[in-house]
């Protein structure tokens, strides 16, 4: 029987089989940020251990950093402490790749890693962050880990890994105009629910996926975790290879040729077995929005919130709780609802392609006076591209301002918090209660829906403008 792409990478990285479906796994790359790494470094100190392979570790502060005045002072005392501790740890343990605030290579970990070429096809990649699944878009086995595992990888460059089941999600056909990969992800999650892929590693395949740009694939894999998956992966192809060729730390010249010969073989064999498989028709997907407090509570932008008759009995209590928090009612439409904030950014939609899309949409239009817009690049490289391509001028002329890179309003761990009771159309990945600020009401969407709302001040189908 043939092997899946996931199984090929897994089997190449097994150091020791401990028992059925449990192995010691070698890790090619680990990313550390300021939130989940302090306890791991403390663990090394207590054990008197060093970092085994410091050149395989990349450390970047991102969750806590401000998106205004980064070069001045971090006002929040907890945020400053976490950033300072990361700085202390990387210096003490000799981490080679460390990019502090305002460094040219600083930004959101899951944006910086792929764009610099630290993440490559066939790698095993981990981070103490669930959205490490993002890197799977390059054809890597990437997943989030806990603090004890972070410590283990720091000390040994290995970890214990329980083998998951495998799933293939196939999307066929061409996307309709105005539909993005974010809409594809939200559509899939709305159909399968947030727990359907728990315990599985997902491979995305089909005509639709093959036609996605590299940055759109990163968005799709980023959201794999929101349906419960351990990670998501897409087989590398010419789109992947062209993207990698432009990455600073990726292999060059003859080294690249050698790797390309390996990477072209990274695909699922005919006849390989998946524990689950599901197929979607791309023509049925339209721009999506969420109405509740998890990413699975999504609908097409012109659809109505479900009525109680269409909600499973086991989910009815959480359904009503979510609607109460959002101040929505069963059966009503999201379309036309006024919004207070727009957030463009995060490791889901903070890349240059997202800013090109947003800028192209708002060009020649004006930001609604009723909306506060936070446009936050995913990295300093993206910020530089925005300036070099003149996108900042388009945005400024339309009444927008580009902030400094960081995780920003994706989560309330820095100064960018949505006020209590306010509605935000967010291109980030989670809409949990309080995720973007205490009492904040989050409506997840793709970039085009966010751009349309920023102009009209309400939930708007971008295809109508």
How are the secondary structure elements laid out?
Elements: H1 5-13, E1 14-19, E2 22-26, E3 29-32, H2 38-47, E4 57-59, H3 77-93, E5 97-98, H4 109-116, E6 124-127, E7 141-144, H5 147-156, E8 158-162, E9 165-172, H6 181-192, E10 200-205, H7 207-210, H8 214-222, E11 231-233, H9 238-245, H10 253-263, E12 276-281, E13 288-290, E14 298-300, H11 316-326, E15 341-344, H12 346-349, H13 352-362, E16 372-375, H14 380-388, H15 391-397, E17 423-426, E18 441-444, H16 447-456
Helix pairs in contact: 2-5, 6-8, 13-15, 13-16
The CATH topology of the largest domain is what?
Aconitase, domain 3
| Strand proportion | 15-25%
How many structural domains can be distinguished in the coordinates?
A: 2
CATH superfamily of the largest domain: Aconitase, domain 3
Specify Rg, calculated over alpha carbons.
21 Å
Tell me, what's the shape?
A: globular
Number of helices: 16
Biggest sheet record: 5 strands, parallel
- CATH top level of the largest domain is Alpha Beta
CA-CA gap between termini: 51 Å
Average residue pLDDT: 97
